[in-house]
Specification:
This protein is an alpha+beta fold and 130 residues long. 41% of the residues lie in helices and 23% in strands. The protein is built from 3 helices and 8 strands; from the N terminus they run ββββαββββαα. The strands form 4 sheets. Strands 1-4 form a two-stranded antiparallel sheet. It is elongated, with a radius of gyration of 29 Å. It starts with a strand and ends with a helix.
Length: 130
C-alpha cells in the first residue's frame, strides 16, 4: 500500500510537490531488502544509454547498522558516505601511505648520496682552481 509520495514544502511557494518518478514513492513497512530492490528510474537518457537509479542506497556502517538511504531525501548523507569511503580507501592504499618506514629511510639515503656528490664536485672544483 502506498502511504505517500516523497513530498515536501517548497520554501518559495509553501506548496507541496509530488514526485515525477513512480519509483520515488515511499512505501511504509518495507524491509531493507525490499527497499534495495526498488528502482526510481529505469529509462534511456538523451544519448540512448539506459539509466537505472535505485530508489534506496543500502549502507552497511562499521558498527553493524544497515540503513536504506533514499536517493533524493537522503542525498547529503549518501554524499557523506561516498566521501568517507573514498577517504578510507585512500588511507588503505599504499601509494597514499606517507608514514611507511621505507619512505623515510629511502629519503635519508637519497639525501646522503646527493650530499656526497655535491661534496665531491665541490672538492674537485676547489682542487682545480688552486
Amino acid at each position: 500500500m502506498v502511504d505517500s509520495y516523497f513530498s515536501g514544502m517548497t520554501p518559495q511557494t509553501g506548496r507541496t510537490f509530488r514526485t515525477v518518478n513512480p519509483g520515488d514513492i515511499v512505501k511504509s513497512n518495507q524491509t531493507i531488502e525490499e527497499k534495495s530492490q526498488q528502482i526510481a528510474v529505469d529509462a534511456p537518457d538523451i544519448t540512448g544509454d539506459r539509466v537505472v537509479v535505485p530508489t534506496y542506497f543500502v549502507v552497511n556502517y562499521p558498527n553493524g547498522e544497515k540503513k536504506a538511504l533514499h536517493h533524493v531525501r537522503d542525498a547529503k548523507q549518501i554524499s557523506d558516505v561516498i566521501r568517507q569511503m573514498r577517504l578510507h580507501e585512500e588511507a588503505d592504499d599504499p601509494k597514499f601511505d606517507t608514514h611507511h618506514p621505507n619512505t623515510l629511510s629511502g629519503l635519508g639515503v637519497t639525501l646522503g648520496v646527493l650530499m656526497l656528490i655535491v661534496t665531491l664536485f665541490t672538492g674537485a672544483i676547489a682542487i682545480g682552481i688552486f
